[in-house]
Specification:
Blueprint (H helix, E strand, L loop, with lengths): L1 H12 L6 H10 L1 E5 L3 E4 L7 E7 L1 E7 L5 E8 L2 E3 L2 H6 L6 E4 L3 E7 H10 L3 H25 L2 H11 L1 H6 L2 H8 L3 H12 L1
Helix pairs in contact: 2-4, 8-9
Length: 194
Amino acid sequence: MERYYQTLYNYVGQIIELPEADKTSIRQLFKPFFVPKDTIIESAGQVPQYHNFIVSGYMRNFHLDTDNNEITTDLNDGPRFFTSYFHFMNRTVSPESLHCITDCELLRISRDDVEAGAKDSLTQKDYTIQILQKHLYEDKMRMTDMATLSADERYRKFIRDKPGILQHVPLGYVASYLGITQRHLSRLRKVIVS
């Protein structure tokens, strides 16, 4: 399990240097958790209970549209924090489900433990704000891309920014994330490979 924690320290260490006291706090508050492939770990219609740090594996957030089609709203691999942030922080019911597409190694922290850690941590508030700002910026860029880029441009940007995902994630999830049909994605892939 040491590898789990070292991965988290390295991730946060890109933002801010973690003092030993905060590393100790992380070890006490974040719990290692292994999730087998194709498991929903947070279901829509519930208040998210955990903030997850992906040590390894591929995860997505999705919701159902009015026709019960799954719409993938976030798709990522580790290392990265991953949850329905707004609903987790505000303890509100989320319309999204959190799905482990592959086997996932996670570190999880409950909402109560986030608050407990914030009282004693020297750096948690600083790195949490910076990580949240990064995710908000990524969400804003994704919305801008969906509104301004063609399907071809979105796909090219996706393979440039997240090349590993295509090798481990079903194309249907990628197509949904890009806002296109799976058939359209297959055509784009053939054109780009040619």
